Amino acid sequence: MPWTVAVVFAAAALAAGLYARHLICSARRALIRERAARRITDAAQARDMAAFHRRINAAIAEQRAQQAEALVLAAADRVVDDELARMTRNNPQEGDTP
Questions:
Q1: In Å, how far are 31, 60, 87 from 35, measured between CA atoms?
Q2: What is the 3 state secondary structure string of 48-68?
Q3: What is the pTM of this model?
């Protein structure tokens, strides 16, 4: 009879130990999955931020190019207007008023 009790307790202890090991391994696998998901999320965020910065920088460059073009065109308009004003003042055409 005492051996039976010892065997039952040993089996219960073995079962509890195996169950604890199962819980620890499950927790470890869950932690590994969470870390992998975090790495994937971080990589996706870095990729998305890089794409966002490329798009923003391209938009800024395009806007600056348009502003520079507008400045050049405005300067060219001023030069043409000044030349036309100078030429018309010195050489009035029919219908022009000085």
A1: 6, 37, 77
A2: HHHHHHHHHHHHHHHHHHHHH
A3: 0.55
Phi, psi of 36 (to 5 degrees): -65, -40
Please give the Cα distance from 34 to 41 (Å, whole number).
10
Distance (Å, whole) CA 33 – CA 9: 36
Q: Which two tokens stand for residue 96?
A: 């022009």
Per DSSP, 97 falls in state -
pLDDT one-digit tens code per residue, 20-56: 999 999 999 999 999 999 999 999 999 999 999 999 9
Q: Are 96 and 88 in contact (CB under 8 A)?
A: yes
